Amino acid sequence: MRSLVGAIVWKELREIRRDPITMAVALVLPLLMLYLFGSALSLDVKDASLAVYDQDRSAASRALIERFPQSGYFKRTHDIRAEGEIAELLDRGRARLVLIIPPGFAHKLARGETAEVQALADGSYSTTAMVILGYAEAIVQSYALERMRERLAAQGMAAPLAPVRVESRVWFNAPLESVNYIVPGLFGVILMAFPPLLTALAVVREKEAGSVQQIFVSPIRPYEFIAGKMIPYAAIAFLEMLMILAAGLWWFHIPFLGSFPLLLAATVIYVFCTVGLGLLVSSVTRSQLVAMLLSLLVTLMPSFLFSGFLFPIYTMPVMLQLYTYLFPARYFIEISRGIVMKDVGLAVLWPQLLALLLYTVLVFVMTTRLFRKKVA
Amino acid sequence: MAGQTGSAALTMNAPAADWVIEAEGLGRRYGEHTAVAGLDLKIRRGEVFGLLGSDGAGKTTTLQMLAAILDPSEGRATVLGYASVREAAQITARIGYMSQIFSLYGRLTVDENLDFFAALHRVPEAARAERKARLLAFAHLERHRDRLARFLSGGMQKKLALCCAMIHAPPLLILDEPTTGVDPVSWREFWNILYQALTEGTTIVVSTPYMDEAERCTRVALLHDGRLIACDVPGRLRAGLPGKMYELVAHPQRRALAALQRALPQAAPYVFGERLHLRLPEGGGDAGEWRAALAREHVQLETVRPIAPSLEDVFVALLPSAAAAPPVAAEVAAGAAGPAIEVQELSMRFGKFTAVDGVSFAVQRGEIFGFLGPNGSGKTTTIKMLCGLLVPSAGRATVAGVELGADPRALRSRIGYMSQRFSLYEDMSVGENLDFFAGVYQVPRAVLSARRAEALALAGLAGQEQRLVRALSGGLKQRLALACAVLHEPQVLFLDEPTAGVDPLSRRRFWELIGTLAERGVSVLVTTHYMDEAEHCHTLGLLYNGRLIALGSPRELRAGMRAGEMLELECDQPIQALALFRNEPGVQASLFGDCLHLLVDDAASARPHLLARLEKAGHRVRRIETVPFGIEDVFITFIQMEQARLDTRAARS
Amino acid sequence: MPRYGRLAALMRKELIQFLRSRAMLALILYLYTGEVIMCTFAMSFDVRNLPTAVVDLARSAESRALVQDFANSGYFKITHTASTDAEVAALLDRGVVLAAVVIPPEFPRQLAQGAPTSVQLLLDGSNANAASVAQGYAQRIVQNFALSRAPPSFMAGPPAAELRPRVWYNSELDYRHFMVLSMMSLAGMMVGMITAAAGIVREKESGTVEQLLVTPVSPGEMIAAKMLPPLLFCLLALFPSLLVAAVFGVPLRGNVALFTLFSAVFLLSSMSIGILVAAVADTLQQALLISFLVLFPVLFLSGTIVPLESMPLGLQYLAEASPLRHYMEAVLGLFLKGVGIAVLWPRLAAMLAIGAVLLALSVWGFRRRLV
Question: What is the predicted pLDDT for the residue at B334?
């Protein structure tokens, strides 16, 4: 005999299957999000547009300019002939960096003086500007070092080595690919973005339509109803996870270092948690519009902003850092990155897993408490 | 576990076996507002108990408290032997409940909905298939098992919702206005399902705005402002009405009504089709006085005869506010005659489906034209085409002098439209709604304030302009919607089920308004499921499967019917007697209050046979006589004839 | 004869309804202020206070000075000291620290002798961006430390070439300036789209749209009236958010009237998206889900969160269809660059074009579905 939970699950699955928009949000949107973030969200600067104002027009200046496109970070897009063009290019956002080589550059180099080069950066995207300027500085510095070495060699002296070197070793993500970091984080965001929203809307719609009254007049107990609503949406969320995991591995070639079973186990807890949050939202709201906005505020926004997904938690003000503990995405993203990128196991991740588990139980209990089989 | 609770239920029920529901001092408040107060109610096993009352009287609140899905603020109720608050779970696990709103899952099929509710109520697998098949057969839904619920017509949805509420064979069924918006054919099928349940011993509590439905109840309770003001057997309520009801035929009718309202406000005179009804004190009162009043107004009185009061008359008489009906204006500017709507061979196809099939008719100026027909027969589609909301697939029509499709803007400024759903902005006040519609119709500023005042008076909302529409009762909303729709003095008015779910008193006033408008020369095209409302129409058109199968005045239609005769039968146990005739060929039986109505080909030849059957089954027949047809009988007979014609044609091809 | 203007009546009705939904108004205000503040604090790619462990095997004055330099830089925050590699590994594994500086025992000796020496930097590279930036910072800190300690003989004259960087528009490279503006634009996008979609679908669901369609009102008039109240309110809501921007020190270098004009056109074009959604959807649930489906790529392809340059070329072209992208450019231009209409007119034209196309589609959609 089918249980009451089974009856609800069966009904929900059938309804979802016949609802193309819900299906699209559940299955297409996550892949779209993964694609956009995975391929487009890279803070690594490549091919930044560079405008050059070479007032010296010497072999030396050309040699320096050559190094910019060679670095791979810049693409030379404009040559400036008159001072007035500079403002034009930056104002219209056509160039991110303007390199100005003043007259007498080669002359100063030859005389052993410091030859100055000017760089104008568009600072409106400060992050990019900072990175771009860093690259420019490195290019000019290496050029300068080479000229100095040449000069010293000409004087018969050995080139002085920098006396202290930084020997850096990168752990976990040695090629320093952003995508390896973003995709495991996206697992946490995507599962928090869509399943709770769908769940909340589905339940509130049933409230608005009144069909929930038929549920009130039945032998079903609140926890059975809640579980029946949770299971299908959690299953869909789990399917979403498998989909984006597969896409991450085969499409973006994310190196997966840790244990699959552990990640999937954590996912099971997490999907119940996110769907539970959606149900919690639905139990305190009566209209779909409010349900949607509320679920944006308690699920999507925090999972995006306050989970360490893109914006490191350690740079936030302390109050906000504490605030991040309120949302489960933070724990799951730590788990997911730990497993995928660092190959750490239960020994390291148990606090996060425990937090997630407690959170889920709490959400379930609260939702069950708030769901009364009464119309008012 | 299940066995334990079962035996506990038995022992608890044993002493008070008769009472399924006992409520004492039941009440519910929402904040400041008292919805129900001091309700005492006892309902016996096997009853069909009707709950009547206008919008906001507290019917839904009462039913929800009895279904244990709403906790009372005061008093207590025992349902099936369980306390409604402490043992709510026991009650909800046993009863069947159908809320007023759409309670099915639109994305599940008919079958799947039933399966879901069967599983939800733990109907054993073995019993499920048999019970499902039986309910579907009764509801005539077998052919639609695989259709999604949201694609069913309104009547089918209600029938399916009832099947779902009954899938676990509950001992108590609580139904909240279950047949609002259901056509007479579906409605009969709906009640057939209920009769079946009654013969199996189910108790039914039903709230309804329909007096026909109330007549079918073994007992009715009348709620007003959250209080019980009467509760008895329909027959006794009718008998207890003080005074006597009279029916008069007078010409011109409108002037007669106005004169009577002035002379005898307590008599609550009202229009019933071509006749006037009024209630006079015992002994006829001072007959000379009102006859003289009529004579003064040059009204010609044709006939006066006493009639049996209807439940609706009782209802109206019992309501405290009934006397305050706004008087009707006697003066009427006679408009020029001539057709306001001319329809020729109008058709509408959606893909392969033909919703309207070659319909032709004409509506004169000042005529009230009633469109009848089952749900999904094409009434709304026809109206939408005539309003320019849908482009017809074929045929032509002229509305208010404008050819369809020629000049939509001109057409729209000459018509008024009121749809099935409330077409007002609920979050705006009464005045704001009026101003808005005046604005979109560009009512000239010079006449605006006069029209506005008139509209407020029409809706009975003078001085209440600041009230939010959301806070108005259903009846008031309907009248305001009508006032908004006629603000620009349209030549033609389309009303699509304007009174669905509205209580009798409000409907009566609504129809008085329509009558006034028609006499001013406005042509009214109205659809309705209330058969008594059909009596108000000058002309009736009956649509079935998109085709116009009958057209004429109510009197003509009645006269033109040669479908047999109606026998009314009074006996001790009408429900059991009904079951007796369920599968009898040549007899169509239905419950009519505490009587049975039997439709037979020939009354004289059928009567002895019927009496013999009843006697054999042990029924004592108190009375059997031939009664005239109601419009509902006419309606159903025409449809059966048409269906028979379609069936034979289908069989031939 | 003076007539009660039809459009005026429609607009009056919309205004009344709009102003009566208090929850919505509060939400709009919140999006324009509270949300802007929250996000500005939270969303920063700057590398600051990176939790760092130190393994000082030298335990000398020099090594302590170097550690001090790291701590004083503001980029690194020394949260742990460790003595073995295993400890460091555990800290990195648990994600407690994201970097570790290891100073070898021979460091002071080699430094004193002028012999080449090295400091080890272990980085958690998960966040590639932060790691590479941190790497750069560490290099600079160590270089400076070395230079300050280098014997004069090593300095063979002045450096050969030097870069004099100058930053335009946002000279302190404050990410918050960008974030405030970006969040303001996002708020307009979300509010415009959702209010427009919800306003129309609500009428569809309640059936009042039929009532409207049998009046002489045309779909165009109806849509125009729907757009007015959210437009007015959002424009008003811009001013508190300008205040927030001022608190964060964002300068408004351009013309306020121009900014208002751009905002109005932008709001209109984002509302057109909402209206198109409403033309397709029948229920509020559908409308909300579709808005969500559309909102996401529109936000993403706007440069508000992620710079467009680093995206694949195809996506960059697609981004031109997002009104938010043009508005973002315009706002940055107006606030940070102080440029005017001479430079920004193509953005205005683009937004107008997007809005016009979408509106034409929606009017067509309404005609087809309803009439």
Answer: 46
Residue among B452, B433, B441 at smallest CA distance from B490? B441
Q: What is the pLDDT of residues C83-100, one digit of tens each?
A: 888 888 888 888 888 899
pLDDT for residue B284 is more than 90: no
Q: What's the pLDDT band for A156 if we cut at 50, 70, 90?
A: low
C117-124/C99-103 β-pairing: antiparallel
- Arch. (CATH architecture) of B242-308: 2-Layer Sandwich (3.30)
Q: Which residues of A touch C77 (CB under 8 A)?
A: 314
- Please report, as a single letter, which amino acid is at residue C325: R
Domain that residue C116 falls in: 50-152
Query: What's the confidence (pLDDT) of residue C160?
Result: 62
In angstroms, the separation between the Cα of residue A2 and the nearest Cα of chain C is 31
Closest CA to B197 of B181, B175, B176: B175
pLDDT tens profile B584-614: 777 877 776 667 888 888 888 888 888 888 8
Per-residue pLDDT of B65-104, as tens digits, reads 999 999 999 999 999 999 999 999 899 999 999 988 767 8
CB–CB contact C309 A48 (8 Å): yes
Give me the sheet containing B48-52, strands edge to edge.
B96-98, B172-176, B203-207, B48-52, B219-224, B227-232
Q: What is the pLDDT of residue B220?
A: 92
Domains of chain A: 4-41+175-370 (no CATH), 48-154 (3.40.1710.10)
* Class level of CATH domain B28-232: alpha beta
Counting the structural domains of chain C, the total is 2
Q: What is the pLDDT averaged over residues A5-11? A: 89
- The whole-number average pLDDT for the span A47-52 is 87
Question: pLDDT (tens digit, 9 = 90+) per residue, B305-364?
Answer: 888 788 888 887 887 654 444 545 544 444 455 688 999 999 999 888 888 999 999 999
Collapsing DSSP to helix, strand or coil, B372 comes out as strand
- Prediction ipTM score: 0.77
Candidates C211, C217, C366, C370: best to mutate against B (most CBs of B within 10 A) is C211
Pick the CATH number of B339-557 from 3.40.190.170, 3.30.2310.20, 3.40.50.1010, 3.40.50.300: 3.40.50.300
Evaluate whether the domain defined by B562-628 bears CATH number 3.30.70.270.
yes
Pick from A120, A141, A168 the residue to mutate for testing the C interface (most C CBs within 10 Å).
Answer: A168
C-alpha to C-alpha distance for C294 and C274, rounded to whole angstroms: 9
* Residue C103 falls inside a structural domain: yes
Tokens matching residue B307: 């009639």
pTM here?
0.79
pLDDT for position B96: 93
> Which residues of A are less than 8 Å from C136 in CB distance?
134, 138
Q: Does B435 touch chain C (CB under 8 A)?
A: yes
Chain A (216-235) residues lying within 8 Å, Cβ to Cβ, of chain B: 216-221
Q: Dihedral angle at the C-alpha atoms of C266, C271, C274, C279, nearest 10 degrees?
A: -130
**What is the arithmetic mean of pLDDT over B568-576?**
79
Question: Who's near B206: CB < 8 A, 6+ residues apart?
Answer: B48, B49, B50, B51, B173, B174, B175, B178, B213, B217
Q: What is the mean pLDDT of residues A14-38?
A: 85
Alpha-carbon distance A85 to nearest alpha carbon in chain C (angstroms): 13
